[in-house]
Design goal:
Layout (H helix, E strand, L loop, with lengths): L7 H19 L1 E2 L20 E4 L13 E7 L29 E7 L15 E4 L25 E8 L2 E5 L23 H42 L14 H5 L6
Length: 258
Amino acid sequence: PHSHPRHPGTRTMLPLLLLLLGSAHGLEKLQYSPTLANSSLGGLTTTSTFVLEQPRCVFTNVEGDIVIWLVVAVPEAVDNFNNSVGPGTPGRAFQRFPAGAPAYMTLNATRIHYPCTKAPGDITVLRVGSETSCARDEARPTCNGPLPSPGPYRVKFLALEGSEPVAETSWSAPIALRTAQQPSTIPTTGSRHSAGMIALTTILSILFAILLAGLVAMLVFRGSDGWGSSGSTFSKPEAVAVGRYNTHHVYDQPAARL
């Protein structure tokens, strides 16, 4: 039987293929995409923050000391995102986002912070953008600072063992924040609703003024009547006849001689 000669490059390629397969399996792709928290909470998005569900029972295969980071990026950075750029570096600093850094990493935690079971009273959400004290502090590049614009933004969770990526979730759908209402868009008194309120307020003011005037007139009338009654009390007193008494001894004195 004739044996087919093995291509000489096969032995050389095999270790390289195994190495590539090992590297590919080193980063676990998790079937999870970050989402906004339950809509019943309220305030899920503001002008500078948004609230995510915690990735509970997602990183079950990572070791306990592996650090799980939240990555916040502009949509344009998602396709070519480089997991090897670590947290706290200039390329992942919050203070440089988004002009100088297309993404930043924040809210580091371990697997123990995202357990599968939920105890009563547990907080199971993450508010992104809640730290204002470190927003301009370049010594804290992993600051969870307020988002600089309405976005949109996309996020994912990335687990690092030291500087080595070991697991990651999918990217979220685009998350847009609220925009502040411009003063020019606030309804003025020219609207129909405002005009009605002004008319009602005016009518009530007139009625109140009439009622107040009537009350003052009544008090003045009662006061003048009271003063008239009091004057009759202090009217000129009636003449009282007083008898004159002369003592006899007065006339017995020799007054003529004095």
